[in-house]
Amino acid sequence: MENGHSIPVFLTKLYTIVQGNQEQEILRFDESGRILVLADQERLQQYLLPEYFGHKNLPSFLRQLNMYGFKKRHNNGVLEFKHKYFRRDGKIIFESNKEKK
Asked: Is DNA-binding tagged as a keyword (predicted)?
């Protein structure tokens, strides 16, 4: 987005979701701001996926995360995803995409 560089739509929407106050109970960053926590898969499917991505297909959403390099891990029954360039501050997303151009 900055300096004419574009961010994939999926990542932009994902970042919008995790920055929203109302979605925190469903999908959020952990306290460190480096890990996405998927706290409520059912509500993600019912509310957020249709609103932001036009479908209710959780496996498709998970494939997209994988396609963009997110690493999945289970933490006490909760799915978490980590990507070295996807962080709460957002600046790293822009920097990583600039490097690829």
From this structure: yes
